[in-house]
Amino acid sequence: MNTPALKTRSYEFTFPDVDTLLKVETPDPETVIVRATRNSFSERRKIAFIRQLAAEGFIADGCQWYPLPAGMPQIHWVVDVSWLRLSQAAKAHSRRLTFFLVGGGLVAWTGLLTSLLLLH
């Protein structure tokens, strides 16, 4: 019998006031992994964030009572920046822009230098 694999749900959140990005992953109904780019959340703020996620339906309702007693879903906070990757499209766009700016600068510099030498 083929059992379909559970799909990991993930959500990204930005907190500019503390310069932190969060990625919340739910690989299974019993586990929540919160990946943060910085360790800038106090315990009180972590609890409020988890409760808000549960209230809005991003994670299981049982997580509303975080910190959780034994036998409840696991919540793991990890400081990890490995999930921040640029897409291939963004890399290609920045490469094209760089070539355009450097090439345009060289053409402008050559034109100015040529006009300076011809007028002298």
**Percent strand:** 15-25%
Binned, the helix content reads 25-40%
Biggest sheet: strands, sense, closure?
Answer: 4 strands, mixed
> Which value, in Å, is the CA radius of gyration?
25 Å
Overall mean pLDDT: 86
Which terms summarize this structure?
alpha+beta, elongated, 2 helices, 2 domains, single chain, 120 residues, 4 strands
Care to describe what's here?
The protein has 120 residues and is α+β, with helices and mostly antiparallel strands. It has 2 domains: 9-79, no CATH class; 86-120. It has helices at residues 43-55, 88-119; strands spanning 9-15, 20-28, 31-36, 74-79. The chain has a 4-stranded mixed sheet, with no helix packed on it. Strand 1 and strand 2 (20-28) form a beta hairpin. It is elongated, with a radius of gyration of 25 Å.
Summed up:
The protein has 120 residues and is of the alpha+beta class.
Note the topology.
Elements lengths: L8 E7 L4 E9 L2 E6 L6 H13 L18 E6 L8 H32 L1
Parallel strand pairs: 3-4
Antiparallel strand pairs: 1-2, 2-3
